Amino acid sequence: MTARQPARALLPGADEALLRWKLGHHLFHLQLGAMNTLLAAARELLKSASWPELADTFDRLSVLYDGATATMRYAADFSPDMYEQLIRPSMAPPFTSPGFSGTLNLEHVLMLDQLRELRGQFRAIERSGSAPAAACDAAARLWRTYSYASASYRPESRCSGRSSRQIDRLRQGQANHQDRKKRRRDNDTRSRNMAVQGRVHRSGP
């Protein structure tokens, strides 16, 4: 081997790792386009208070984020050494322009902006008690799915040697946190309903 030979000639499995990385990111780009379409639709449905359609759109987005998680786990299913020695150098000069970063992906930036706005708008309505339970539950599933998916997008999570068992424990912890929030929300709703019923009873005929 000479110093001029490519790194993949020195790393067993390098060709497969490169193929996974490229295919995974190409597929992720398609998923981003679908996410952005559905997020824009969800924001319009929220404006018109089309609750059944909004809940269905939330669930479709959850499926997409689950799919994106699987895509990125497939794309990065190789050792941390492979990432440091082969993948990361391929994203630096002279192969790319200085300053290249995944944050330059405009589709990803748009997805984050739309999701942030949708989440803020929905939570404001949820706090007011105007959103029906089915939409709130679908939203909780979406936020939970996104939280897990976003961890898989980061290189330090994908290539840090974190095991599938550790990732699953992270996901379970996030699910438990969302369940606790849902129970608190349900308790708050019951308390408000009881308070209203009490006022109606006291001011009866």
Low-pLDDT stretches are 155-167
Total strand segments: 0
- Termini Cα gap: 95 Å
Percentage of residues in strands: under 5%
How would you characterize the largest beta sheet?
none
Residues in helices, as a percent range: over 70%
The ordered string of helix (H) and strand (E) elements is HHHHHHH
Using only C-alpha atoms, the radius of gyration works out to: 22 Å
Silhouette: elongated
> What's the helix count?
7
Integer count of domains: 1
Structural class: mainly alpha
Query: What is the average per-residue confidence, as pLDDT, rounded to a whole number?
Result: 80
Note down, in words, how this protein is organized:
This protein has 205 residues and is mostly helical. The protein has one domain. It is 77% helix and 0% strand. The protein has seven helices and no strands. Helix 5 packs antiparallel against helix 7. The radius of gyration is 22 Å and the shape is elongated.
